[in-house]
Design goal:
single chain, mainly alpha, two-stranded parallel ribbon
């Protein structure tokens, strides 16, 4: 899913989103390139982990290739966790408007149940 840069910025700046309030010192936040929150994270003594950008037609340096592999391996685990959330029928398809007031609670319960499942990494 593609998200516009202005939408990405609003997602983290919206006072109601509260995302930046959850960031603690020394946290590492994974995001795609172009997610404009690096300065906000630096103010909270946290870091942004993104894959290094390609440099046109030149090959990446050995360290950038290693960094890209590390981020890619971590992203696999994030995707696995997200897929576990998608297994809950209540989160499939269109969310009924009548459940909107309970949406945060429903997602929190589903996430807690995912956390109780066996480890993603053995």
């Amino acid at each position: 899913m593609a998200i516009s840069r202005s939408c990405q910025r609003r997602m983290v700046e919206e006072p109601l989103s509260g995302f930046l309030d959850l960031v603690k010192p020394n946290d590492v936040i994974m995001a795609d390139r172009g997610f404009p929150i690096q300065e906000d994270l630096l103010l909270r003594n946290a870091t942004l982990s993104i894959p290094p950008a390609a440099q046109g037609k030149r090959q990446m340096t050995r360290s950038k290739v290693g960094q890209t592999k590390t981020v890619a391996n971590l992203r696999i685990h994030v995707e696995r966790a997200i897929n576990r959330l998608k297994d809950f029928k209540i989160l499939e398809g269109t969310f009924p408007i009548t459940l909107l007031p309970a949406a945060d609670d429903i997602l929190t319960v589903c996430a807690a149940l995912v956390n109780l499942q066996p480890d993603l990494i053995k």
